[in-house]
Every structure is written in C-alpha cells, then in structure tokens.
Write a structure and sequence with these properties.
alpha/beta, Rossmann fold, globular, 39% helix
C-alpha cells in the first residue's frame, strides 16, 4: 500500500497543505483531487490509495480556508483566487494532471480549464455542474454557517452532521470528527474560515455569474470528461446533468444510486471503481 506523505504549495503568500500517494510501480500519470466546501483533503484518503494501487499518483489538497491550509488574510475566496491556487498546485505537480473536483473543487476546475485549456488531461466533476439547485446550495451554506458559535461537544457536532446528511450512516463514535474541528476556549469549531460563506459569496447574482463562467468553460472542453452525480443529490438535478452533457458531447455520466451530494463519502467503492475505469479507458487511451 502506498504511504501518504504531506506536501505543501504556496500561492500569494497562502500555504496550501496536501497529501500525496505515489504508485509503487511505473506511474501512469497524476490525479489532483479537490474537495468541496466544508470538506478537507482527508475525504479523498481511500480514493488516493486506490489510485496509487492502480498506478496513478494522487495529490489531494486542502483548499485555502480549509483544513490545514492557511486562511486568506484578506478573506478573498473568489473563483479567480481559487483558480490561481489550483494553477500553483498543478505547476508544482509538474505535468498536466487529471482534475477530480467535488462541488466547489469541480467548479474551480471548470473555471481553471476555461482560462487555461491545457492545464489538465482529464476532468471528473463530482456532483457539480454549471447549473445547480438553489435550495441544495443553500442547504450546504446553512450547514457551514450552523457551527459559527461552536459546539459544546463532539457529540453535538455529530448531531449537526447527521441532520445535514441523514442518508449516511452515523459513526458509532464522534471522535473521528476531531480532524474537522478546532478546539478554542472550551468549544469546538469547524476547520473552515466562516468568511467562505459570507453574503457576498453566496448571493444569487454571484452564483449566477459563476454558473455563466462554468457554462462557457464546459462548452470549450476538449478533454476526457466524466460527471459523477449522486442520485439523491439536492445540488445537481437530472436537468443540470443533462445540460452539462449537452455542453460536453461524449462526456461520461454516472449516477451513483442512493448517494447524496457527498458522493465519494456516501459510496466510495462505486466512485473509486468508476474513476479508475475512466482513467484507464478514456484518459490513458487519449494519450
């Protein structure tokens, strides 16, 4: 089994922390894994190991304002800044990778490829498309805001997660949440910068501008692409998935039965199997 090692990249004075898994034999390329809002790189741990076992190097990064990465000193988490961070990560990797982005990470990947088409050799969008459902997006934002005052215990934080994601089995012990929380002044706070979900970033006009940019980027894609959607997702509807497939003719599409917005966590085995198949048949054959 490939060992996980810590890596760092710095962009505009912000340190980005990641994990990397290297294949034990000849490498077939690199996959960069980008999590969604409110997650960390650790959501990709099983996927990273699986990719390394299949011969692909994998790098998963904590987005600025998340996990171990620095918070933006000026509170700037705009799409342009996230794209610049991704470009810095890809430049550090040293070759065009396959980008695998969940939610916010997928939108960043789309925006980046619209600006720099040669940035990657393949793209996997995990429950994200240019058109998303406002109610589902609001649910994510409300969850991220819900812990602004902290939690009295890990059990209370686990209650919040279970309420947001009821289709996922609740872990028997809440200690696993320690990685996603920070203890300050006797209370537990989520790891992310609360400014990530301020009113300006989540305003309808901001989201619509991001969607227009993503549509233009999708229309210009000329690389192997796959959309993985959770069948129970409240963020990407069947209509949103169809729109993306019309914008990117020839793209693969997989609905993961019973999975919600957190597709990789809800059914990691199905997701990892589909990802490896896409890499071996679509990306590798494309050269």
């Amino acid at each position: 089994m490939s060992r996980e090692r810590r890596v760092t990249t710095v962009n505009r004075g912000v340190r980005l922390v990641g994990s990397r898994w290297d294949p034990t034999g000849p490498g077939r390329g690199t996959v960069v894994l980008l999590h969604g809002g409110g997650q960390t790189r650790h959501s990709w741990k099983t996927t990273g190991r699986r990719l390394a076992a299949a011969g692909w190097a994998a790098t998963a990064m904590d987005t600025r304002g998340h996990g171990e990465s620095d918070w933006a000193p000026d509170g700037d988490y705009s799409p342009d800044v996230l794209v610049a961070d991704l470009e810095a990560v890809v430049d550090a990797v040293g070759e065009p990778p396959v980008l695998v982005g969940a939610s916010m990470g997928g939108m960043t990947s789309l925006h980046a490829l619209g600006d720099r088409p040669g940035l990657a050799r393949g793209l996997v969008l995990v429950d994200v498309a240019p058109s998303t459902e406002a109610e589902g997006v609001d649910e994510v934002a409300r969850f991220m805001r819900s812990g602004a005052r902290g939690f009295a215990s890990l059990e209370e934080a686990a209650d919040a997660v279970a309420s947001y994601n009821p289709q996922r089995d609740r872990p028997p012990r809440p200690e696993g949440l320690r990685r996603n929380l920070r203890h300050r002044d006797g209370r537990w706070y989520w790891h992310w910068d609360p400014r990530l979900v301020d009113d300006a970033r989540t305003a309808p006009e901001t989201l619509e501008a991001n969607a227009r940019r993503a549509r233009e980027a999708a229309r210009s894609l000329r690389l192997p692409t796959m959309l993985v959607r959770g069948s129970a997702s409240r963020v990407v509807s069947p209509h949103g998935a169809r729109e993306l497939l019309e914008l990117v003719p020839g793209a693969r599409h997989l609905d993961v039965e019973g999975a919600g917005h957190m597709v990789a966590g809800d059914d990691n085995d199905v997701f990892a199997e589909a990802l490896v198949e896409f890499l071996e048949h679509d990306v590798a054959q494309a050269g």
